[in-house]
Sequence to fold (323 residues):
Amino acid sequence: MFKNARAYRLNTPFELDQLALHERLSEKVFRGCGPLEAATMGWAPPLGPQAELLVHAANGCLLVAARRQERLLPASVVGEAVAERVAELEQAEGRDVPRRERSQLREALLAEMLPQAFTRSRVVLALIDPQAGRVVVDAASDKLAEEVLSLLRQSLGSLPATPLTAAAASERLTAWVLSGEPPSGLALEDQCELRDPAEKGSVVRCRGVDLGSPEVRAHIDTGMRVAAVGLDWQDGLSLVLADDLSLKRLRFADELLEQAMDGAEDEDPALRFEAEMTIMTEQLRGLLSCLEDALTDGAAAADRAQPEGARRAQEPEPAEPPF
Fold:
C-alpha cells in the first residue's frame, strides 16, 4: 500500500504489457554503489528479491520498483576532514592554502572516504495505469519522484508525462474549507495547513480542529490560504492533499485491508499482494479522477469563496458580494 502519491498524466497511450515492460527495464537492473559512486538507482522486482519479473500486473495496472542506494557521507564530515588537512598544511608549510588547492584536497578526501562509507538502500514503488493514463509514484518529495520518472524515461527511451497540477489549487482548497462542502465522495477531516501568500514563512497548522470553526475562518479572512487539507475518500482512504496535488499520509481503511486478506491468509504471498494492489489501484484511480474533475471545474466556486480582502486584491470591482 502506498504511503504517498505523486501523479503524472501520460500524454500518449502506454502500450507496453507486463513482459514487454520487463524487457525494457532489464537493461537498467539495480546494482550497488561502486567504490567511488555516491549513489545508484535501478529496477528491482516489486514482489521482492525472490521474484523474477521486474513488473507486477494487477487490475489493469503495472507496478514497478526503483531501488536507490547511496553512500552515507555527510558534507559536514567531509568539511571537517578538509579543515583538518588544511590546518596541517598551513602549520607545516607556514602558508595559506588557496581555494583551488582546498577544492583539490576535498576531491582527494572524497576518493579516500567514499569506499569506506556505509550504504543505505530504499525502494520506491511506481504505478503505471494505462487505463487512466497516469503514472503514480510513492514518493514524499518531488525530487525523488522525478528521479524515478527519469529512470523510467531512460529505460523506455521516452515517456511523455507531466505532473498533475491545477491552476489556483490553493484557492480551490480554501473554497472547500469555507463552504464545508468538498466534491462528492470527499469529506473534510480535522487537519489543514494555512499559508499567507504575502508573507513567506507565515504558516498555521491545525490538527484535531473542526475546519468550520471561527478560528480557522478568521485566519482565512486575514488572507491566509489552505496549502494542505485532510480528506477522506469514500470512507475507504484518508489522506492529506497539498496544493501541488501531492497526496501524503495515505491510510487505507481497516475494512479494505481485511477485505484484501479475506481468504488469502493461506495463499501464496503474491496473491495476497495482488489483492492489496487491486484495492489500492481502485481507490487511487477513483480519487485522482475525482480530484482532476473537481480542481479543473472548481475555479468559479473558488473565486466565490474568497474573503472580501482577497477578492479586492485580485479584482478592483468584485462581481460577488463579500461575506
Notes: The two ends are 42 Å apart (CA to CA). Residues 298-323 have pLDDT under 50 and may be disordered. Residues 6-72+118-163 form one domain. The chain has three domains: 6-72+118-163, 75-115, 169-314.
